[in-house]
Amino acid sequence: MEILDSAWFTLQGLVADVFSADWAGIVLKFFPFVVLFELPVQAIVMLGAWRYHMTHDREAVHTPYAPTVSCIILCYAEGKDVIQTVRSLTEQLYTGHIELLAILDGSQQNVETYEVLKSLLPYVNARSNRKLIVAPKTQRGGRVSSLNQGLAIASGEIVLALDGDTSFDNDMVRAVAVRFADPNVAAVSGNLRVRNAKKSLTTRLQALEYMLSIHLSRTGLAQFNVINNVSGAFGCFRRAMLQKLGGWDSGTAEDLDLTLRIKKYFARHPSLRIEFAPDAVGHTDAPDTLWGFLMQRLRWDGDLYYLYVRKHWQGFRPDLMGWPNFIALVWSGLCLQLFLPFMVIVYMTYMLFAYPFGYVLGVMGFVYLFYLLLTAVMYIEYWWLLSERRRFDLTFAWVILFFPGFTFVTRVWCAVATLTEIFMKQHLDSSMAPWWVLKKTKF
Question: Domain check: are 66 and 168 in the same one?
Answer without folding.
Answer: yes
